[in-house]
């Protein structure tokens, strides 16, 4: 049966040799395409930095045009350069750089968009409240207009001139 000197009982044999070779492969830590990896992150990070510094750089829309140009360059670089290079054999570091740029930067832009939307909503609420305070509540405005119109009808019927003129001036002051 088994001899003591043989190593038959201690040898591990794989059933699927081809699968095991693909799983156990040496990891490449060196970045094979450093220029592509650099530009992959450069355009995205530059656009975010310009967005933060746009008030310092320029008070016009030019800063926003620069952001659009940088994001367009990023789109071109990802579509035509880095994605094609990443389809070939790449290192683990390049893969992390590629996916980091594709996930983190759009998440930051979504956060910025959410902050802008919240700013617009809060400013709109301030505007509505300011208008309500200036004009008065809708109920008071409606009752004031109704009473003014009623007094105008009474003025025409009775021919009274002084009281309606004073009330008309008070309505003019409230509206303006």
Account of the protein in words:
With 176 residues, this protein is an all-alpha fold. The chain folds into 2 domains: 31-120; 136-176. It contains 6 helices and no strands. It has helices spanning 17-23, 34-57, 62-86, 92-135, 138-158, 162-175. Helix 2 (34-57) runs antiparallel to helix 3, helix 2 packs parallel to helix 4 (92-135) and helix 5 packs antiparallel against helix 6. The chain is rod-shaped, with a radius of gyration of 37 Å. The model has no long low-confidence stretch (mean pLDDT 75).
Compact description:
It comes from Propithecus coquereli (Coquerel's sifaka). The chain has 176 residues and is mostly helical.
Key features of this structure:
176 residues; mainly alpha; rod-shaped; transmembrane helix; membrane; Golgi apparatus membrane protein TVP23 homolog; transmembrane; TVP23-like
Taken together, the total number of domains comes to: 2
As a percent range, the share of strand residues is: under 5%
SSE class: mainly alpha
Based on DSSP secondary structure assignment, what is the total number of beta strands?
Answer: 0
- Give the integer mean of the pLDDT values: 75
The ordered H/E elements are HHHHHH
How far is it from the N-terminal to the C-terminal residue, by CA? 110 Å
DSSP helix fraction = over 70%
Shape: rod-shaped
What is the alpha-carbon Rg in Å?
Answer: 37 Å
Question: How would a textbook summarize the main sheet?
Answer: none
Number of helices: 6
Low-confidence stretches: none
Organism: Propithecus coquereli (Coquerel's sifaka)
InterPro entries: TVP23-like
Membrane topology: Multi-pass membrane protein
Subcellular location: Membrane
